[in-house]
Design brief:
Signal peptidase I, single chain, 10% helix, mainly beta, globular
Length: 239
C-alpha cells in the first residue's frame, strides 16, 4: 500500500532541498541570466521578443544585482561595486532603469566618465570627434509589434574601431541636437541603436528616460541572442 506523506514530512523534505535550490538560484543570478527584449529601442541589433544572454559579473557586482536591490541603492553617488570595472564603449548593457528600478532595460554604452558628448543633426560628437557613419541602405523599423516604418540603416564606428548598426528615420528629431556636456564620475552615456525610438541618456529620468546612467545600476553585459521566436536565424547571434 502506498504511504501518503504527512504535512510535517513534506515540510521537512522541502526544507532539506532548500539549500540546494537557493544555491542554484544564487549561482545562476551571480554568473548569468536571460532577459526578454520588450521594445524596439535596440533595433536593428535586438528585436522585440529576443531572449538575450547576460554575463552578470562583467562589471563587478553591486546591490543592483540582488532581487531586492531596489531597497539597497546607495544614497551617495559612488561606484559601490565589488570588483567593479567600467564597460567599454560599444558594450550592450542591461541595467535597472533609473525611472523605475523594478524594470531592466538594455542600451549601448557610448560615453564613459570624463568623456564630452554632443549631438548635431543626429550625429554623435565624442570628445570633439564626429562618430563616422556608413550608409547601409534602406530598411524597416518595427516601432511596436507588427507596426513597421521606413528607416535608414547606418554603421556607426566608436573609438577603437568598434562598429555597430543603428536606425534613423530623420536627422532633426527631438533627440538629435544636444549641446556639449561632460559625463561625471560613476556615470555612463547610453543610447539605443534605434536612435529615433529610444528613451535613453538623451531623455531625463523625470521624463521617463535613463538620463546619465549611474554605474551602480548595471546588472551585466548582454553577449548573445539566446533565442528569437520571430527570427530563428538570429538564435545564438553574438552581440
Amino acid at each position: 500500500m502506498t504511504r501518503i506523506p504527512t504535512l510535517r514530512q513534506l515540510a521537512r523534505d522541502i526544507l532539506s532541498c532548500l539549500p540546494v535550490l537557493l544555491g542554484f538560484l544564487t549561482i545562476h543570478s551571480a554568473l548569468a541570466a536571460a532577459y526578454i527584449v520588450p521594445s524596439a529601442s535596440m533595433e536593428p541589433t535586438l528585436r522585440i521578443g529576443d531572449q538575450i544572454g547576460v554575463i552578470v559579473p562583467s562589471y563587478g557586482l553591486s546591490t543592483a544585482n540582488l532581487p531586492f536591490g531596489t531597497l539597497l541603492k546607495p544614497s551617495a553617488e559612488t561606484d559601490s561595486r565589488l570588483f567593479g570595472r567600467l564597460p567599454h564603449r560599444g558594450d550592450v548593457v542591461v541595467f535597472r532603469a533609473p525611472a523605475n528600478l523594478h524594470q531592466t532595460w538594455v542600451k549601448r554604452v557610448i560615453g564613459l566618465p570624463g568623456d564630452t558628448v554632443a549631438l548635431v543633426h543626429g550625429r554623435v560628437i565624442l570628445n570633439g570627434t564626429v562618430l563616422p557613419w556608413k550608409d547601409m541602405g534602406p530598411t524597416r523599423e518595427e516601432s511596436r509589434k507588427n507596426v513597421w516604418r521606413a528607416a535608414e540603416r547606418y554603421e556607426e564606428t566608436l573609438p577603437g574601431n568598434i562598429r555597430h548598426n543603428i536606425l534613423k528615420m530623420s536627422q532633426d528629431g527631438d533627440l538629435d541636437n544636444i549641446a556639449p556636456f561632460t559625463i561625471p564620475p560613476n556615470h555612463l552615456f547610453v543610447m539605443g541603436d534605434n536612435r529615433d525610438n529610444s528613451a535613453d541618456s538623451r531623455v531625463s529620468v523625470a521624463d521617463g528616460g535613463v538620463g546619465l546612467l549611474p554605474v551602480w545600476n548595471l546588472q551585466g553585459q548582454a553577449r548573445a541572442v539566446l533565442w528569437s521566436w520571430r527570427d530563428i536565424g538570429r538564435t545564438a547571434l553574438v552581440l
